[in-house]
Specification:
With 135 residues, the chain is mostly helical. It contains five helices and no strands.
Length: 135
């Protein structure tokens, strides 16, 4: 019985990197929300709820990275979600809804850039994979 092909390494690595990055952020935001709130002058509840969301997100993206056949629709949802996260992060800073200090602004911008890079890498990986390894 032939073994089905795995998604291209590029797409798997992009998904895995996103899962690791998001998992580390999830742990930090969830369990260190109080300390990070003080450090960045951001609302503790925002950081903690972001961390809780990222736990589920990291699990989903890690699961996708481990699949033999990658559901194209789910990867596209991840790409769109990452792009939306990037825009929402910058919008949050410009909205005046929060008043982070310089360290907080730099952290939000850095994670927005990283998330945008993941969106691009995943999109490129999805395009490179064609239809042969995605469901």
């Amino acid at each position: 019985m032939p073994v089905p092909p795995r998604p291209p390494a590029f797409l798997r690595r992009a998904l895995l990197a996103d899962a690791v990055f998001s998992g580390v952020a999830a742990i930090g935001f969830t369990f260190g929300a109080g300390t990070l709130a003080t450090l960045f002058n951001l609302p503790e509840v925002l950081l903690r709820e972001t961390g809780l969301f990222l736990i589920a997100y990291a699990a989903l993206v890690g699961w996708l990275a481990s699949r033999v056949l990658v559901p194209k629709a789910l990867v596209l949802l991840v790409v769109i979600g990452n792009a939306a996260w990037t825009v929402a992060s910058i919008t949050l800073l410009l909205s005046g809804a929060v008043s982070p200090n310089l360290a907080g602004e730099l952290m939000v911008v850095a994670q927005a850039i990283a998330t945008g890079v993941f969106a691009e890498l995943q999109y490129v990986g999805l395009r490179k994979s064609g239809s042969e390894v995605v469901a």
